[in-house]
Amino acid sequence: MKEEIIALLKQMVAIPSVNSTPGEKKIGEFIEGYIRSIPYFQKHPDYVFIRKLKNDPLERRNVIALIRGEKGSTDKTIICHGHTDTVGVEDFGDYEEAAFSMDRLLELFRNADLPQDVREDYESGEYLFGRGCCDMKGGDAVFLVMARHICERIEAFHGNLVLSFNPVEENQHTGIIEAIDVFEELQKTYGLRYILAINNDYICPMYPGDPVKYIYTGAVGKVLPCFYIKGMETHVGQCFNGFDASMVAAQLVDLIHLNPALCDAYNGEMTLPPSVLKCKDLKKQYNVQTIHEAFVYFNYFLHNASTQEVVQKMTTLAGQALARVGDKMNARYKSYQELTGKAYEPKVYETEVLTYGELFDRVKENYDGDLQKKLDEETERLRGAGTDSREISMEITRLLTELSGIRHPVIVFFFAAPYCPHNTLKHEIPEEEACYRKLAEIAAEFGKQSNETYELNQFFPSLTDSSYLKIDDSDQSIACLKRNFAQYDKLYAVPLERMKKLNIPAVNFGCWGKDAHRWTERVHVPYSFEVLPRLITYTFEKLFHEEVVL
To answer: How many beta carbons lie within 10 A of that of residue 51, not counting itself?
Structure first.
């Protein structure tokens, strides 16, 4: 099976399916062709489901297939899913042209100036290189070859598998989101009961020399807290008469960026702190007017916190940022007046922090006309101009602020895309605890057989499509998100309630490799293409053949 997986992987890597390029369509067509070449699907062509993404100019598609075991009858079903897109290859530098040729990279790297750890891995002969080999075409190839072998002995297979290969994971997760329609359709049509979803996204060592293979029983969540800042403009010749929005932005970055106090914990596992992803003023050209508008947003990982908690923390810090700027400006104004021998009179600043929901309600109360229609029209205009989704949310918030008539400094807090729900197998929920215990048992038993050390962690630390198969957020948390998400229905209409109803335990096994999203990306062949398929097969046997309540 190993050589078959490697051969398929090389074919898949050779298709440059970089996110948001035509290659995403091509890799989907390739996978469809591979699946349809399997005799089982030639016999059951109606078990292959191709769904083009809605309103997608690149014509990307979800490729989904159903395998129904013929040894006995059961409704137990496991979803095996993986993403088919990759990040770009600009990081390869001189090797960019060979980034999608695994054999060529091996030749070029023979005499390349590689980092020491990469050189050691190269010399071991146990690694293959190339964009996407680890993240995550290796995992896709494992699923595809396993599917072919299972179909060859379908009469001996007990259980149902749904294979799902999805584009657009590296940014908006559109593929898996729209795949929900198919999962529900299959569930209803064939009477399936989803007991588990296995993602095969890459896993990696936690530290140099780490031999542990990690199984993740959930996915880290993410929100994108955004701040539209409106200050007060002034001429630079009267610089103390304004309220500089860029100073407010700087204070927000100082208060939030990499702040460990904002890490979110669940059952002993901690997220990374928030990171600033965008910080800019909104001046379009040079002039001698001070900056009176700015826009800042952050990556914010979640394990357990509700969106209400995020809103409370972010708005509190926004108020602190405004207060800091007021204090700094007065302190510097006082020093300047003393320097010039002039009287000092403290400046009093009226400031305010609003959430998007609060701002919308305020404007709607006094707006003469259909406010939502106006916002929808502006959204479509901006979308038609190719404006980034986050910028559209900001412009809508900016428009609402203008319509509100607010003239004093204000920060408006809102959410923007993407929103990645957090999930894990909750120990306080008996059914999920039982599933966790069974996976721990499988890992321990198989670890002894394979001489591997496995460790279960609760959250896959990188963003993953697994976020959209199980949602731990409460209904109240989801409602808070939608209320404060600028144009949610137009910009990120994720069917959260339906996903929450599916509630599929979402775990990650994964190929073992290193340096995903780097030019030295590589996958470890012995584990990924020999041990991993056996682990997945063992999991199928344990969950389908044994009377386990999941």
So the answer is: 18
| Structural contact between residues 228 and 414, judged by C-beta atoms closer than 8 angstroms | yes
Reduced to 3 states (helix: H, G, I; strand: E, B; else coil), residue 231 is coil
Helix or strand (DSSP H, E) at 455: strand 454-457
Claim to verify: residue 234 and residue 303 sit in the same structural domain: yes
Whether residue 381 sits in one domain with residue 521: no
Q: CA-CA distance, 522 to 96, in Å (whole number)?
A: 15
User: Distance between CA 519 and CA 527 in Å, rounded?
Assistant: 21
From 354, 387, 420, the end of a domain falls on: 420
Contact between residue 134 and residue 523 where contact means Cβ atoms under 8 Å apart: yes
Is there a single domain that holds both residue 286 and residue 324?
Answer: yes
Q: Which CATH number goes with the domain that contains 533?
A: 3.40.630.10
Q: What is the pLDDT along the chain (550 residues), one digit of tens a residue?
A: 999 999 999 999 999 999 999 999 999 999 999 999 999 999 999 999 999 999 899 999 999 999 999 998 899 999 999 999 999 999 999 999 999 999 999 999 999 999 999 999 999 999 999 999 999 999 999 999 999 999 999 999 999 999 999 999 988 899 999 999 999 999 999 999 999 999 999 999 999 999 999 999 999 999 999 999 999 988 988 888 889 999 999 999 999 999 999 999 999 999 999 999 999 999 988 988 888 999 999 999 999 999 999 999 999 999 999 999 999 999 999 999 999 999 999 999 999 999 999 999 999 999 999 999 999 999 999 999 999 999 999 999 999 999 999 999 999 999 999 999 999 999 999 999 999 999 999 999 999 999 999 999 999 988 899 999 999 999 999 999 999 999 999 998 889 989 999 999 999 999 999 999 999 999 999 999 999 999 999 999 999 976 444 3
Q: Residue 306 belongs to a domain with what CATH number?
A: 3.30.70.360
**What is the residue range of 14's domain?**
2-219+423-545
CA 251 to chain centre: 27
Alpha-carbon distances of 315 from 165, 255, 308, 454, 491, rounded to whole Å = 39, 12, 11, 41, 23
| Pairwise CA distance, residues 298 & 313, whole Å | 13
HSE at residue 368, side-chain half, CA atoms within 13 A, is 0
**206 shares its domain with 242:** no
229 and 209: one domain? no
Same domain as 396, residue 500: no
Show which of 369, 395, 420 is a domain's final residue: 420
Number of separate domains in the chain: 2
Sequence-distant (≥ 6) Cβ neighbours of residue 39 within 8 angstroms? 151, 152
Whether residue 215 is contained in a domain is answered as yes
Q: Burial, 506: exposed, middle or buried (Cβ in 10 Å; 0-12, 13-18, 19+)?
A: buried
User: Considering the domain boundaries, does residue 550 fall inside one?
Assistant: no
